[in-house]
Amino acid sequence: MIRVGFIGLGSQGAPMARRIVEDGYPLTLWARRPASLEPFADTTARFAATPAELGTSSDVVCVCVVGDADVEDVLLRPDGVLAGMAPGGLVAIHSTVHPDTCHRVAYEAAKREIAVIDAPVSGGGGAAARRALLVMVGGADEDVARCRPMLETFAGPLIHLGPLGSGQLAKALNNFVFTAQVTAALETFAFADALGMDRAAVAQVLAHGSGGSRASAILAASGFNTAGLRQAAPLLRKDVSIMLDVARASGAAEPAALVKLVDATLTTLDE
Question: For the whole model, what pTM was predicted?
Fold first, then answer.
């Protein structure tokens, strides 16, 4: 089995890493906070002192940190992953970042004969534990094939979308559409209230009907409490910004109706 390194043991990354080690892969972990490693004390995972040490111990390194700057930091700093990884290694970027970040990392990695794929995810930690995490992959065919069995310890489905950066583009589009759906869901339930309908009953109808969406399901599951969505607003704003920046750079016309809904959602969540 390939040796795997994992950085980014948050609510999403930790269940992914646990699936990897529980399927028998030799796993090395690094975290800024020692507390993040404590849940793995009952596994065979090894702990590295630096990202470079993790790179030395790994054939494939998975990165699931929050943002672009974090990805570049753990990979490119003097004691970063690339400083320790041997030629022939591979980095999988699970973080949701700009496609340009993936290309910058790949440029530096190529100097050391290290491959890079992007593999952002959607579905949450619970989905990873059930092997039901959507994994959107961009990269060369041979690189994706090499680490597919490892990714499939938590993926279901794994979709290879094209060259490097394609996974990030798909993730940004997914989150852009989800952000638009939040306003549609909020207005749907408000409209149901005005009609004198029971929200919970309407949510059940939407869950089984053609008018449902992931946003309406999340709202219903939260008891129509928007606190979780408000907490996620900075990440949604980041992903929307990535989507619109890529659209402008490519010359693609922005979808006006969706942009209007997205703006309404972000305004609502900021109130």
Answer: 0.94
> Pairing state of beta strands 4-7 and 60-63?
parallel
Q: Residue 63: which CATH number? A: 3.40.50.720
Greater confidence (24 vs 271) lies with 24
> Which ranges constitute the DSSP H helices of the chain?
13-22, 51-56, 68-76, 81-84, 99-110, 125-129, 141-151, 166-194, 199-208, 214-221, 227-250, 256-270
pLDDT in tens, 166-177: 999 999 999 999
Residue 232 has pLDDT above 90, yes or no: yes
* CA 10 centroid distance within chain: 11
* Residue 194: strand, helix, or coil: helix
Report the alpha-carbon distance of residue 148 to residue 83 in Å, rounded: 25
Catalytically active residues, by annotation: 171
Together in a domain, 38 and 87: yes
Contact (CB, 8 A) for 220 and 207: yes
Q: How many other C-beta atoms are found inside a 10 Å radius of the C-beta of residue 149?
A: 12
State the pLDDT at residue 1: 86
What is the chain's Cα-based Rg? 20
**Structural domain ending residue among the three candidates 137, 163, 189:** 163
